[in-house]
Amino acid sequence: MLSYIFRRLLLVIPTLFGIMVVNFALVQFVPGGPVEQMIARLEGGGDVFGGFAGAANDAGADSIGQADSQYIGARGLPPEVIEELKRNFGFDKPPLERFVNMMWNYVTFDFGESYFRKISVLELVKEKLPVSISLGLWSTLIAYLISIPLGVRKALRDGSSFDSWTSGVIIAAYAIPGFLFAILLLVLLAGGSYWQIFPLRGLTSENWDQLSLLEKIGDYFWHITLPIVASTISAFATLTLLTKNSFLDEIKKQYVITARAKGLTENRVLYGHVFRNAMLIVIAGFPGVFISIFFSGSVIIETIFSLDGMGRLGFEATVARDYPIVFGTLFIFGLLGLVVGIISDIMYVLVDPRIDFEKREG
What we know:
362 residues; 18 helices; 74% helix; globular
């Protein structure tokens, strides 16, 4: 197992390198870079995208002026100012040199400083990470606590009315987009049009520092309830069906028939033998489920509930073309996702020692 883990760790390096190469290459063709963003701000245009719309409307009149300038916003600034902006952002160097310098810094975990926030990328990540971890961790735990018992019960009562109506609820839950369900929760329970039971936004109240420890815990869960419910709904549906199908597959196997023939009680057969084997894929997949909830739902949920987490940070950095944040977080979470894949394999072995990835590779 150790040699398998070592080989997987070595594979992380070229995989992560490939991710960074592809994304860096794509960025070179995306309009509205940091220099253009800064020029738009200096000229009072807000951002560069308004400049693109305006340029499209009077392209004929300004075609000569645009031909003389590499940047749309450069028409109102002296060339030396443009060159100074390029040097400040490092765009006076060829793309290959910029990429090599960036990767060398990332190897030493030096992710630089945000272009527009004047704070290091690592400090921003440390500041925003607790919010996203809260959403991902609680959503995953609640999904497992509900899905496993429900999936087992559905498998034991397969084809019954209970199985039918719960399947209908699960399919409906899976079909509802997370952002739409989040808005529905706000309208119904956060004072949108009906009841003011939960707060509308934020992770804590304004008087957080004045609260006692128990009051802080209660305030935290009061604020996090709706975001967790909104981000759990799709994972809950998937895990429930996965648990049911895994349990049904195990019940039909020969060793279950043999165990029953030996006179073992039904509970001993189901929870002493079937449960362990059926839960292998569900429990071992915990790290992957956490990462999927952490990444996929965080942007929309954090935006709707005004939570200042990693998803919102990445979205704002992408819109502003704040490349140190974009590539820094891409590197960190790409590395995290690859490591979690290895942890998932280790979890399989811990849950069922009969699994041997080295023999499977051979």
